[in-house]
Amino acid sequence: MLILVGKMGSGKDTIKNELIKLGMKNCCTYTTRPKRLGELDGKTYHFITDEEFETKKKDKFFVSTSIYHTAFGTWKYGTQVSELLKTSNSIVILNPTEIKQIKENTLLGELMNKNTKICYLIAGGKSIWERLSKRGDDPDEVKRRMERDQEDFKNISEYVDFSIRNEDINPKSLAKIIYGIYHQQ
Fold this sequence. Notes:
5-stranded parallel beta sheet, 4-stranded mixed beta sheet, about 45% helix, globular, alpha/beta, 8 helices
């Protein structure tokens, strides 16, 4: 499994989609946030209600969860255990909180160390602002998330296998580089 992690606007979804075009299998996680334009339920995320999320969390359906308090409400994300146990050549986007939760789970942490690579996508503030402006994100929410990312990503280098800059290179080329590094296992 390949895990992509990166700050907001670092290009995670774009790179994930390019890696899927190269033959990787999507691992679909769960969220309570509203769908963005072009997102599909069951492909981009499993979009569920807050009540459904809490029931699944209580039933230990998720191996990791995270909560964001946004300007538009509270958004929750969760990853199903079986998604992480998929065969190799699968890809998922997780955040630092979820990666830490999974690594702290002894059994899953061991499986991840053997069968998983974690790629940290890095993008500078200017690139992030440009991408999020094109996407139409609310400027106040972008500022809040950028501040939050500073805290969330403080010690990310302790958890990742490799880092790569997502600037000044087209997504298709970057995906090929990441795919090559991933398959050097």
